[in-house]
Structure formats: structure tokens, C-alpha cells
Amino acid sequence: MKPTNSMSIHVIGRIACIVALILIVMIPLSICLKFDIFPPMKNFLGGFFQAVMIYLPISIAEFLTFVPILGSGAYLAFITGNLTNLKIPCAAVAMENAQVKPATDEGEVIAILAVASSSIMTIIIILIGMLLIIPLSPLLNHVYLRPAFDNVLPALFGALGAYFFMKQWKLAISPLACSILFAFVIINFTGIQFTSIQGALIPVLGLISVLAGLAFYKKGLITGDDMK
Amino acid sequence: MNYLDIANSSFVFMVCGIVIAAVLIICCVFLAWAWRRGLELGMSREVMVRTIKTSMTFSIAPSIPIIIALTAMVGVLGIPFPWLRLSIIGSFQYELMTAQIGATSMGISTLGGSGYTAQVFSNSMWIMSLGIIWGMLFSILFLKRFSSGLINAQKKDSTRIAIIITALYFGMLSVFVGPPVVSGGIQLYTLAVSALLMVTITQLTRRNESAGDYAFTLSMVGGMVFAALWANLI
Fold first, then answer.
1. pLDDT tens sequence across B37-46
2. Could you tell me which of A22, A176, B76, B135 has the fewest CB atoms within 10 Å of its CB?
């Protein structure tokens, strides 16, 4: 990317993140000021540090994992959230359809277009859901429809997994095998709910996947042609 | 005053609405920048329009469970604050967990239970708001250097960087494939059906690029329809 353009998206991204951070703090602040309901500082700090201890390490790992995929699109993705279930798959599919690679100028453009469009759509859908929450609630929780929504993630990752496995099975096989092994051990022997540690497993499997991929590359099992 | 009267007050609706509107504007700014940058790079308008359309379509189905999460959260945290948290930044699991931390650090064991006063609600709000700011904070501090470094490294050894990025993506994807395979049942069948649909649609639309754009959405929705049918009919 040319320095001037690179500069401008990073300036926009930084301003956007600063504005979002200020707005996020303004919400509890304005509500506490309006209704005079500030919590005692001691209790707040106790809870805050507890949350930091859980989420700071996960956030560092997420940052290192997601930025290479999204490039500058990560500014917006971190502001709008829902990364693993929406923004990352959406950007990856968009780059695949447009036949561009991450960490290239074109890849970054497509990733930003995808993350921004996906965010707008999600905000609109949740707005409609919020406005119609009373009539929608029984419908979405209806016994006939609920299984469909409960299984969105297997449906989403089944399609994504099949496509990328077909395309690059040499890279996909190590993380898939490890994921199945980890899930088997965690579900059968630890009593830990798998969903509660999914966030922490993403960087672990990411690292295993990268190390395996680079080892295959070094041994000549994966070549430049495989990655085209 | 009951905390839910505050949580559902017009003031909280207004504040949350303003923030969501601001984020919507930020999305449009990014969209406009990417569009202009794409044209500058000589990318075709058609490809960019297709990206926008397919990304929007793709996002519909995964957004519905977020509404279900909203319906589950409004009983304990009111409507506007969960609406805000789920529209931007957050995710269902994170929000409820941090709200709970906010309650326990005030000595209250259950969200919305007895003793969950307006002050406890405000503590939950503060911790939900400040506990997950790290992605944005790191982006402000390190993203420019990190992504520029990646682009430069890509120019030196594009295969190596392509392997690292693709492998990272596969690592994330695999986390969601392992559990259904091990648990079996409806989750595994849904995964298998949507995978099978994806393979079939990809083969059928090999020569038609724009039809292939919707392959992921169709496979995902197909998997969800199967899950509903399986659970209710079989």
C-alpha cells in the first residue's frame, strides 16, 4: 500500500477507535450521572480486574490472530464485535470470492468492504429484532425453529470447513485433527464446558496450525503453487 | 426506583441509540474509504458491489441467534443496554459473564436476583463496558506497525505469509469443527449436511462466479433448515 493511503486508513481507524472508546465510556458515565447510581470504586475495581485477568490474555491472542486476516479491517471489526461468528468468516469468504489474498492492498479493500457491510447488516437486523422483540421472541424460540438457530455455528463452520478443506487440505488437516483431539479430551474427561474455553483455544490452535504449516513448507510438502 | 425502570428508561434508549448511530456512521466511513481505495487500485466496481451484497446476505443468518441472545438478556439487563452491547463490540457469552462479575463484585450472586439494585446494575454496565476494550486499544497502539509489517513481509516471501495467515484462519475455524464431531447428534449432522451442500454447490457453480458467491449462505441456511427438520420430524 502506498504510504499516503496507508496513512489515511490508519488515521481513520485510530480516530474511529478513539471515538468508539469515548462513547463506550460515556454510556455508563452518563447513566450514572443522570440517575446517581455510581458503584463504590472498591467493588468496581475488584470486578474490573477480574474481567481484565480473563479477557486481556484472550484479547492479545485475538489481536495477533485476527489482524493478519483482516488487515486494517480489524479496526472496524474490533469496534463492531462478533468476530469469530461473523466478521472473520465473512471477510474470508469475500476475499475468496473476489480472488484476492489477505495482507495485500486488494485483500485489505475487500476485507474492509466485507466487515463494514456485515456490520451494517447486523446492526439493522438487531435493531429490527429489538423493535419487534415482543412478537419475535416466541417465534424465534418456537420449538420448530429453535433448533435451526441453535445450530448456526455447525452450519456456518461446516460450509466454511468443507470449502477450505477441499482447497487446502494439507494446511487444514493439523488444526482439524488437534481440534477433534482437544474436544474429545475436554468433553469426555474434564467436565469443562467446551464453549467456555473456545476463545482461549483459538490462539492455541492457530499456533499449532501455523507451526505445522511452516514445517510442511520447510519440508517441501506445501509449495507456492498450493497457496495460489 | 427499580433498576429495570432505569435500564428501560427513555434516557438509556437515547444514549444507546446515539452510540449505535455513531458506529453506523463509522461503518459508512470505512465503506466509502475502501470503495475509493479499490477504484484507485483499479479494482472493478462489479467485484466490490458483489462483495457488499454477498457480505450482507451472508450476515443475515448468523445475526438471528444474536436476537435470541437479546431476548435472553432483556429480562435481567433491560432492552437498550443489551441492544447496544450486542449490536457493537460484544458477544452473548462475554456480556453475560461480565455482567455476572459486576454483580458478584457487589456481593450479589444472581443477575437480576434479590439485591440486584440500580447500583449493582451500574457496576455490571461499567465492567461490561471496560472489560473488553483491549482490541480497540491495541488497534490504536499497534495495528499500523503490525499490518504494515505483514504487507512488507508479504512482498519478501508471499508464500510464507500466505501459509501463516491461512493457517491462523484454519486454526480459528477448527475450534468450531471439533466439538460437533465429538459430541455427535444434531450438531454433527448439521455440520455434515452444510459441508455436503457446500461441496455440491461449489461443484455445480464452478463456471458461474456470481452464483458461487452465495454458496456459503445457501449451505449454511440449508444446514439450519435440516437441523429444524431433524429435531422436529425425526
1. 999 999 999 9
2. A22
